[in-house]
Amino acid sequence: MKKYKGIIFDMDGLLFDTEMTYYHANQVVADRLGISYDFEVYRQYIGISDEEMIAAYHKNYDQQYGKEVVDRLVNESHEQIFADFSQGKVALKPGVEALMARLNELHIPKVIASSNTLKFIHILLAHSSIKDEFDSIVSAEDVHFAKPNPEIFLKALAKLGLKKEEVLIFEDSKNGILAANQAGIDVVMIPDLILPTEDLKAKTVGVYQSLNDVVEKF
């Protein structure tokens, strides 16, 4: 791997093992409300913004269940997720702490570029061992367009004050890989719940099982 001067990290499914927390919260609430829901439904929304997910819920469920019930699905799921986050129930993904330590040794700055809200980002970081590791954060509130639009990565790049060729992105989702490509920035994929296709692999500079596998690459 070539030498990089700055790193941009996605968060959900890459730094924190959040995706199953999100799924479980949505499933519990959907079951309580009598909404037909399962993991195959949830996986369609991995890597998109909250706004896009909410819009999709209303499009897919309003006619059958009514807008008020769908609003409850959204709101009560968020309440459950916030409770889980606040109780520190979400673990770091394998290799996160080791990679942070290595980047610190090399004095390489780190930025989070997450489609999540700043509220949830701060809650997750506050209950983790990496709360002070990042030089800056770009969240859903900072952009007009969600991934695969490259806006979030271009803003993260500006925070680093580096050239595109000097920066590496770590991502776990298809939309994240596509956004990195459109931004013109190298990207490594650490798959979470969805494995990459061969076409998606070709858009990366490497696909690894966990962040542990990239520590010695720096």
Written description of the protein model:
The protein is an alpha/beta fold. It has two domains: 4-16 and 90-215, Rossmann fold (3-Layer(aba) Sandwich), CATH 3.40.50; 17-85. Helix content is 45%, strand content 10%. It contains nine helices and six strands, in the order βαααααβαβαβαβαβ. It has a six-stranded parallel β-sheet with strand order 3-2-1-4-5-6, with helices on one face. Helix 1 (19-33) crosses helix 4 (67-86). It is globular, with a radius of gyration of 17 Å. The model has no long low-confidence stretch (mean pLDDT 95).
Number of strands: 6
What's the architecture of the largest domain, going by CATH?
3-Layer(aba) Sandwich
Number of spatially distinct domains: 2
- Say which CATH homologous superfamily of the largest domain is assigned: HAD superfamily/HAD-like
Strand content: 5-15%
Major beta-sheet overview: 6 strands, parallel
Helix content: 40-55%
Contiguous runs where pLDDT drops below 50 for at least 5 residues = none
- Sheet with most strands: strand arrangement: 3-2-1-4-5-6
Please state the overall shape, judged from the principal axes of the Cα atoms: globular
Can you tell me the CATH class of the largest domain?
Alpha Beta
Rg, rounded, reads 17 Å
Our count of helices gives 9
Structural class: alpha/beta
Protein name: HAD superfamily hydrolase
InterPro entries: HAD-like_sf (IPR036412), HAD-SF_hydro_IA (IPR006439), HAD_2 (IPR041492), HAD_sf (IPR023214), PGP-like_dom2 (IPR023198)
Pfam family, one: HAD_2
